[in-house]
Q: What sequence folds into this?
């Protein structure tokens, strides 16, 4: 039976024709209405374009990642294009850029985050040359006595830090 409160007629809950919904059900009902209003044919083209871009990007990355297909395209995984790579020698013959040289036994590890490898030379640890390379994979020559050509770069901790452009096994 309806009651009047402050001039407003209020019906008891039993008499109201409402269905109680949880907040999730309310959101789902609203989402269904919004999705129903979207034109389905207009969504197909953007979805296909995005899928195509993803497929082309993944395919390009796969080809250039250094697998057999990437090597067919002229991209080597262990150096830059144009770098000569053999068992005894690797790198670019660019003496104008890589004019500094050093000899020693190539070992893994840099110093304080500088360099990925180092050359052990006579005279102790103070004579080590710390190396990094933007051209070749130095890991192929670890444990061998080598001569390296490169460009000296600024270091904070290493006594001598070099970007190696060419390496040659001498023993």
A:
């Amino acid at each position: 039976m309806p009651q009047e409160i402050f001039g407003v007629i209020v019906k008891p809950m039993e008499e109201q024709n409402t269905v109680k919904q949880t907040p999730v059900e309310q959101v789902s009902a609203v989402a269904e209405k919004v999705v129903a209003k979207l034109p389905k044919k207009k969504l197909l083209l953007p979805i296909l374009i995005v899928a195509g871009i993803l497929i082309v990007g993944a395919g390009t990355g796969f080809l250039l990642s250094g697998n057999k297909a990437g090597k067919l395209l002229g991209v080597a995984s262990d150096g830059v294009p144009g770098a000569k790579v053999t068992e005894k020698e690797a790198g670019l013959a660019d003496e104008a850029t890589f004019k500094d040289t050093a000899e020693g036994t190539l070992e893994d590890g840099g110093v304080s985050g500088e360099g990925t490898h180092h050359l052990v030379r006579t005279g102790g640890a103070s004579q080590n040359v710390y190396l990094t390379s933007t051209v070749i994979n130095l890991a192929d020559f670890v444990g061998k006595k080598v001569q390296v050509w490169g460009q000296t770069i600024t270091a904070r901790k290493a006594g001598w830090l070099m970007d190696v452009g060419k390496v040659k096994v001498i023993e």
